[in-house]
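User: Modeling request: complex.
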Amino acid sequence: MQQSPKKHWRSVDELNETPEFAELLGKEFVGDDFDKNIDEIDGVSRRRFLQVMGASVALAGVASCRWDAEEIIPLTSRPANRVPGKAQHFASALEFAGHGQGIVLTSYDGRPVKVEGNVLDPNSDGATTVFAQSAILEMYDPDRSRSASSAGADVAMDEAQRYVTGLMEGTVRPAGGAGVAVLAEATSSPTVLQLRQRLQGELAGLRWVEYEPVSRDNAIAGTRAALGTALRPHYDLGASRVILSLDGDLFSGHPAQLRHSREWAAGRRPVEGVMSRMYVAESRHTIDGGMADHRVPMRSGDVGAFLALVEALLAKEHGMALASNGVTMDDVPAAGAATDAKAREVARSVAADLAAHTGRSLIVVGPNQPAEVHARALHLNGLLGNLGRTVKFTDEPAAERPSHVQALTDLVAAIDAGEVSTVIVMGSNPVYNAPAGVDVGAALDRCENTLHFGLYRDETAAHCAWHVPLAHPFESWTDALGWDGTHLIGQPGIAPIWGSLSNIEFLQWMLPSITETPKDLIMRTAGLNGKAWRKAVHDGRSEGSRLASRAASLAAPTAFRPTGAGEGMEVTFAPDTKVWDGRYANNAWLQELPEFMSKLTWDNVAMLAPSTAERMDVTTGDLLEITVDGQSLNVPAYVMPGQARDSVALALGYGRTQAGVVAGNDEVDSVGVNVYPLRKAGISQTGGEVTKTGKTFPLAITQTHHLMDARGMQGVAQRLGALVREETLEEFDPDGHDHFRHMVHHPKLVSLWEERSYDGYAWGMSLDLNVCNGCNACVIACQSENNIPVVGKEQVMNGREMHWMRLDRYFAGDDVDNPELATQPINCQQCELAPCEQVCPATATVHSDEGLNDMVYNRCIGTRYCGNNCPYKVRRFNYLNYRKDLKDPNNEVAKLALNPEVTVRSRGVMEKCTYCTQRITEKRIQAKNEGRRIQDGEVTPACAQVCPTEAIVFGDKNDPDTRVSKLHHDARAYELLAELNVKPRNNFLAKIRNPHPDLAPVVEADDASNGGH
Amino acid sequence: MLGNVFPAWTSTVRDLLPIVLGGGALFVITVVTFGFSADTIYKGYQPDQPVAYSHALHAGELGIDCRYCHNTVDVGAKAAVPPTQTCMNCHTRIWADSEELELVREAWSNDTGIAWNRVHDLPDYAFFNHSAHVTRGVSCVECHGRVDQMEKVTQVESLSMGFCLECHRNPVDRLRPVSEVTNLAWNADDLPEDERAALRAHFQELVDTKQINPPTTSCSGCHR
Amino acid sequence: MSSQYDIQVVQAEEDPTFRPDLVMGGSTYKSIDDDVAGVAEGFLEKPSLVWYAMFGLSVSVLGMLGAVVAYLLYTGVGIWGNQSPVFWGWPIVNFVFWVGIAHAGTLISAILFLLKQDWRTGINRFAEAMTIFAVCCAGLFPAIHVGRVWFVYFLFPIPNQMDLWPQFRSPLLWDVFAVSTYATVSLLFWYMGLIPDLATFRDRSRTKLRKFLYGAFSMGWTGSSRHWHRYEKAYLILAGLATPLVLSVHTVVSFDFAVSQLPGWHTTIFPPYFVAGAIFSGFAMVLTLIIPVRSIFKLEHIVTLRHIDVMTKIILATGSMVGYAYALEFFIAWYSGNPYEQFAFTNRAFGPYAWAYWIMVSCNVISPQLFWFKKIRHNIAAIWVITIFVNIGMWFERFVITITSLSRDFLPGSWGYFSPTLFDALTLLGSFGLFFTLFLLFIRFLPIIAMAEIKMILHKQNTTKEHQGGHH
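Assistant: Request completed. Predicted assembly structure:
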């Protein structure tokens, strides 16, 4: 196990960074070592582990009035560029459902604690998704598999390796791979693909099956149908003046969602020119729909018909018809939500807008829609001259692969037919997430040899004889392709904590002939070496790598006669915005993250339209029985404004039974309900029955104002206009000075005591309500950066969630089935005259000379008066000790996820957002040491750094040239509750809607006038 | 006499009672104030070290600069305890086989660390940054005392919050030319009158104008 | 008509010039000693089972409180229902409730003393005792409701190595001083008054132990004219000192709310409104306790219907003030034109906590209005029931103020609904355990009526009678 120091440090000299050193750490935690003897962890090997960490807190418990005595155990020799306690940043890569994201790891003493986006990755532009943000917690998850196992018993890795080698030599190779299948989750890693080809080359008979429960296969089939070959479409939302999204997932699940958000936001800043207009027709209320200027809720099954209607109107009213097989008004189904009067009204404007913006418009279709809708949308994009302009094409790497569902079904059939008796599962978890009727578990049980290779010992591992732990992407050398084909290089940030293997290393077990290190393999794939390679590793991607772009030529359109969903209830399935297809289910950060639309934590629900719920006499929390083809499940109802009538939306990814102590395992009940058993052949929409059981189910919802009494509703309606200020593009005057500030009238404000002046830095923040689309990334980023605890479902139900950043979500308008949506990110406003400060008897919260509202945890005694007196209610109190779990030796590893720059709060202490004061301090000291001022953009709080739409901007208000100062003088700028004379440092930029002139805005701006006077 | 119940002398007791009680209270207060003051508790802490390393010898007699070992002091928050390698830089040749250094050689060859006992230890919620001080002309000696004269390192200051504020509220007297930061023997009084005055004026100016603006005494300066 | 001593009161109704005696039943100085001291001594002769039963109950409830507090300190304030946005819950409600109760005592002893209201003598000792005990209960809550009790000393201006002082702008700090001062002065005042009576007890005691203890606490009182002279002086001074405190304490407590900017709290009417409410609840509690006591221990001739009648009138008056304050709050909310303020109040009356609001109104505003009727004022049972309603109502007043305002403030995004836990209830119950334990010890071991003062009244009464040739 012990490597010669020489080799160890040579790699350091090669790369100016040293993830490897942390291998030592890994060695200390290798399975048996750890489980065998906990004392040993706190004794010898723990010391070694801490030695690697640079300094330790080995509590010797000296009886004295001093603190507990500490020991300092320095490294034997310190790697170059390592300054104990100083942050280092490594570029790396992460795969999300088979598509790469460039990221940057922040690590202290060789311990990654935070994920950031990589500005050099064109797919992320430095932003990140909630999934990437929470990957840190995943890596340090104590529930991860810590060792290989055979028949449930832990075994050493080399024993597992002997088994695999034996299997390969004894069974697989002799048979030329016949009867052997590798069932893998999708990956874009070129190196893994090369190894796979090599393997299949050597073993002709070997089946390689790729399965993802949530896929874009419909889109691929659609492009194939429309273009003859399957190409990958890339949308340019920046260049699109008019966007029609049909059940789309542009901002919520699309592999390029970060780029989409960034480009879309760029086109939604009225001061910087014209604004794009967005139409959305969808069944569930997604954040894409929330951002629409006009949204038509309709069942997924009706969406095709709506597209047909648009096409027909284009032909009828603008003379833009397809060469052949065009849709005319007669072909459009007369009945149905897609084509009723209201929908026609919108469709007319859509058609008009599209016709008026040829080459600058865009029609996108979501992955849940059938292939023919995708194909038709492409034809219409062609008709509108968008191809090559707002829609560009590249090769589709997965073009040749059969659809995921097909592949899995075939494999199970083959196993049943006895054609396959050896199955090696790589990463995928089909036992849990296979479509209804495909019993992978039983199939695996039938096989002779089964091996599961994954992060967790999950449902599938339970059906496999052998298990080998997979290394987290941050623990190993990986590579991946971004959506646009950028080759991302992922260096490890730490050595495998449990000595687990990467995909590459595991495949090398099956291909003993390949002896290079994973790093060398990736280097070869990238075709780089020397300086170029080091640059690629440093940048996290090999520059200029892209998928080859292709000019698209449309085939002749086929007939398109969508009939609509017809009568009856529709059930739709979609990946959850928090745990996706279930792979992130054991991530407590994500489980406790309030889902943006429903503000629901720790559960999945059946979303119903208010009108539907009323008809069925159902309210939120009632337990429903949902039946699809005889299969029934009980799911709690949630009445969701904006959900399509007669359509029930179910989120995948819950009801895990072998995930871990967070999402559920043998000891802990599952979180939520597993709805995969209702999902036939992976189809995302189907007919079904929904009935009331009469039982109810408790839900932990963090924001319930839309579910409350009439009096409260009035109150909200009355003040909403004053809180979230908005206008339409027509009303908006880009040169109007302080127009929005003065929307609320109030008497002259006088301060009770002398106000202080700020001559140094004056930190301020600007939040753009126009582009905040509710992606939630800031919430998790803040949680990760600031050591914010997770409190659990019961505490959330009791209103004790701890998030410092909260996304308030308001519905407006009279039509509950199709409300307008307003989002408002709320963190501490850092009031200059902070109400919290003057009521704290202990001086635990006071003002800094840079205008920060400091919260001094060690001085706080927890009177909670500050919380009462905060008009924004951004303060969070530790009612209980939410860190108890860390006392459990088994959770030792979870401590590694904590940010050493931020105090871990004890019970009985108030906490809140501090604009990431630790980041400010770091830069202030650095700037002072270099004898200069902090530059604009040098300090970025966690929330602002991850924001894909750049809705959050932070900086020095005193310097007129900073972005934040300019935004504070923007025509849209206003302060929330300024009439209280608290002088918040946060400014909001008012929301500007861009409705089509023919369609009256749903909410008149007069809300603003009757509110807040 | 106290009614018809108690003997006469009890009235004197009654009258003395207030004085006794008052005095007692005063006594307790004094004991607590001085007995539990940061100075009493923290000063003079002098734990044994696994290796009898003498700062007096290395930093004092041999005059090795503090930053030879504590080389991160001016770039990072921590003035890191040097890695074993630093010792071995010399001790592979000098005293290469003294048994006092047995432990060091062991740690070096087995790649295990040496567990030094921490002397100067701030609570975890106080974030002190060395580089911010030494690059600004605050000498090691201000907090650590004449380490160059210590056989065994001892804590000479309370390092309490009051101790920090005392200096932060009036920094000029504690500043010295950055070049002299690690010269623990340096003393402004050794300078001729006029030079000292000039220096002081210079520091005053630095504090007011340059990036050494008055040290922030905001809570977030040290607590996050 | 509950006893033969009530005739005079009836007479007074017919002939306004007639003042009923404050001490009746032809009491003599001796008989008063016997009657009052008899209460305590009675327990010596025949230990009352009733007392033991009640005491046992209270002590066990007190023990339960101890257990709850221990669990609280071990686990954290999370055992209560407090959450976000309702950071303050029942503990603060209980605190304000008990502080309010604590008002009657000093008001009666100090202000009425200065106003030469002789009728106070019948009840002042009793009310003062109740005050002390209520303050004990009140003081408990601010202490245990903070997150980290072990750092509570941060609240006191003690020189420390952090060079830090408490935040003198915070009403909570004012509270610390206001309540502790009030507690100290009330205690001294009460003890001062006790001294002569303790001496009487001493002289009447037959056992050595009692003689010794009462002797020690009466600090050698002999009743010499010098003692009396000093006593009167000191009593007057303390009364003078206590008077402003009666008003200041609850004014400061009201600042805890009024100084904040929360709709429903941020209002200038609070100080007078709180003081009125406090006197209101204080007198109600005095009646609730004294009515059973006077009948059990046959003290109707000392605590006469006249005393009760006067107190009901005070309750009526203060009750109406409180009602007026409720009304005015709504008016101002409407008049201010501030939408948040307006919502806070309509939400109180018609929002999710409407039930609490209407309990409060019916108990505090409507029920005392019955005291307009002579029949009710003379119906001991009815009075007793009404005063209990008033106590309930005043607890709900604090509940309504604290919780409805907090649960829905400015941003609907952070609104919530507070629901108490079992421990909230147990803590409240426990505080009553503490109160009654102390109270039962009081009636068992101490003079529950200010004998010395009664005797003065008796003297006055007799002398005036001689002048007018005496009625009856």
